[in-house]
């Protein structure tokens, strides 16, 4: 497969060596209010994210408008329990006629803008807008024809892997590569809404890097920023979180979305986490060099006459480290002073036999 070292999207290099690429997912939290969608993009830009992402679908491209329990959310613990899929997707969809203006507005604010297509016609539509990359949602990872279509554009592909087995991930990567896509990023994801920290299993990130030879990030549906920040320490180079202006105002994904101040904290803290990774090093960093002065060494704690025996009574291990290291303590005890040693003098080899 070959090991993917870096991917470039709209001039932004994404790799383990670069600061994490943070995506604000607008999803349906705009409540189909165009002015609100623009406010969300502006607030996302001000919070320091790298990119905003839309979702490109219609209710008819997602499901069938048939009144049957087959098309109803029946899990009692779901945020959307009892909702009919077609009706839910109608509410959550981003109108196609918004895309161009929202993308242009995001670019004006310095953001990279792209989308998740949910069927092949959505890819055709997004191609007319010249998006820089494509995102495949977890639920569509097994839709190999869709992946093939997006990959055939030869643009970078980001794929979420919630629920996916190793075999399903390999199948998705293989069909993308065979369609001509060279730049693939896969995202660890837990497809519950919200997800719990306990079900996130971040240790999988490193295993994914090794097994699939791709850059790996995190699509995070947990509440708060802790899981995303922790993922950076395990090698996540992309962080995707859902965005909302005000959780209390509602929105289909509001419960597990971050507000602007939280997104700002996320962008700042993932960068801190990335900088803290540094490199493997022992012996202290250059910035610690001055601190070594305040280690301990052996000092005379009493006046010592020439010929007097050095002992635990007249010597002491204290700060600073300008005398013999404490590791010499047992070799020094019992030695004879060559000359008078004044209390407060650092013990050095020339002062005793």
The CATH superfamily of the largest domain appears as Aldolase class I
Query: What is the CA-atom radius of gyration, in angstroms?
Result: 30 Å
| CATH fold topology of the largest domain | TIM Barrel
Mass-distribution shape:
elongated
| Class from helix and strand fractions | alpha/beta
Mean pLDDT: 95
Low-confidence stretches: none
Work out the helicity level.
25-40%
The CATH class label of the largest domain is Alpha Beta
Distance between the termini: 67 Å
- Do you know the CATH architecture of the largest domain? Alpha-Beta Barrel
**What is the chain-wise order of helices and strands?**
EEEHEHHHEHEHEHEHEHEHEEH
Approximately how much beta-strand content do the residues carry? 15-25%
How many helices? The count is: 11
> How many strand units?
12
Total discrete domains: 2
Explain the layout of strands and helices.
Blueprint: E1 6-9, E2 12-15, E3 21-25, H1 34-46, E4 51-56, H2 59-62, H3 85-92, H4 96-108, E5 112-117, H5 120-128, E6 134-136, H6 144-151, E7 157-160, H7 166-178, E8 184-189, H8 204-212, E9 215-220, H9 226-233, E10 238-242, H10 260-277, E11 297-300, E12 315-318, H11 329-332
Parallel strand pairs: 3-4, 3-10, 4-5, 6-7, 7-8, 8-9, 9-10
Antiparallel strand pairs: 1-2, 11-12
Helix pairs in contact: 1-4, 6-7, 9-10
Task: Provide structural commentary.
The chain is of the alpha/beta class and 353 residues long. It has two domains: 12-57 and 93-277, TIM Barrel, CATH 3.20.20.70; 286-351, Type Iii Antifreeze Protein Isoform Hplc 12, CATH 3.90.1210. The protein has eleven helices and twelve strands. It has helices at residues 34-46, 59-62, 85-92, 96-108, 120-128, 144-151, 166-178, 204-212, 226-233, 260-277, 329-332, and strands at 6-9, 12-15, 21-25, 51-56, 112-117, 134-136, 157-160, 184-189, 215-220, 238-242, 297-300, 315-318. An eight-stranded parallel β-sheet has the order 5-4-3-10-9-8-7-6. Strands 1-2 form a two-stranded antiparallel sheet. Strands 11-12 form a two-stranded antiparallel ribbon. Helix 8 links the parallel strand 8 and strand 9. The longest helix is centred in the last third of the chain and has 18 residues, at 260-277. It is elongated and about 100 Å long. The protein starts with 5 loop residues before the first strand and ends in a 21-residue tail after the last helix.
């Amino acid at each position: 497969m070959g090991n993917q070292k870096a991917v470039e999207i709209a001039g932004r290099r994404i790799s383990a060596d670069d600061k994490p690429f943070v995506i604000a997912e607008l999803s349906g939290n705009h409540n189909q209010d165009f002015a609100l969608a623009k406010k969300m993009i502006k607030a996302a830009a001000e919070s320091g994210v790298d990119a905003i992402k839309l979702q490109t679908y219609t209710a008819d491209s997602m499901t069938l408008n048939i009144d049957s329990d087959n098309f109803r959310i029946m899990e009692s613990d779901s945020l959307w329990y009892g909702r009919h899929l077609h009706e839910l997707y109608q509410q959550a969809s981003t109108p196609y006629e918004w895309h161009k203006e929202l993308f242009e507005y995001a670019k004006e604010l310095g953001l990279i803008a792209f989308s998740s297509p949910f069927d092949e016609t959505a890819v055709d539509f997004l191609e007319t807008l010249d998006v820089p990359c494509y995102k495949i949602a977890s639920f569509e990872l097994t839709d190999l024809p869709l992946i093939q279509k997006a990959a055939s554009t030869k643009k970078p592909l980001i794929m979420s892997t919630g629920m996916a087995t190793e075999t399903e991930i390999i199948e998705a990567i293989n069909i993308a590569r065979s369609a001509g896509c060279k730049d693939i990023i896969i995202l660890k994801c837990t497809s519950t809404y919200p997800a719990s920290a306990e079900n996130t299993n971040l240790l999988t990130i490193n295993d994914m890097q090794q097994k699939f030879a791709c850059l790996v990030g995190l699509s995070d549906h947990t509440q708060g920023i802790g899981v995303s920040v922790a993922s950076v320490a395990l090698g996540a180079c992309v962080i995707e979180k859902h965005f909302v202006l005000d959780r209390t105002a509602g929105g289909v994904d509001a419960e597990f979305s971050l507000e602007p101040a939280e997104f700002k904290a996320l962008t700042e803290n993932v960068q801190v986490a990335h900088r803290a990774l540094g490199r493997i090093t022992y012996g202290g960093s250059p910035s610690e060099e001055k601190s070594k002065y305040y280690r301990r060494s052996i000092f005379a704690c009493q006046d010592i006459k020439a010929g007097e025996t050095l002992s635990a009574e007249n010597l002491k291990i204290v700060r600073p480290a300008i005398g013999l290291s404490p590791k010499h303590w047992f070799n020094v005890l019992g030695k004879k002073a060559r000359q008078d040693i004044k209390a407060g003098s650092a013990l050095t080899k020339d002062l005793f036999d």
